[in-house]
Amino acid sequence: MLLITCPWCGERAQVEFSYGGDATVERPDNPAAIELSTWLDHVYLRDNPRGLHLEWWHHSAGCRQWFKVHRDTHTHKIHSSSPASPNPSGDDG
User: Please, which residues have CB within 8 angstroms of residue 92's CB and are 6 or more apart in sequence?
Assistant: First the structure.
């Protein structure tokens, strides 16, 4: 069983969480202004990294907070977790 540490609730079983995706992907500033093919690439064409990776997780069966997790995608070992950025652009981590 994978154990994930919520920054607010502590260590919990994976079943309490929902995976939110790659936390390194930057959303285009104005999606309506870009070409459809560029938008489709942004949404569907993603790398599948092996090794340490930054991910979004949601504590859906707990405090309902979003946070970031550094997880090794090969071993599934979680190295750290931290609250989501208070800045909506995510510039500060």
Answer: 85, 86
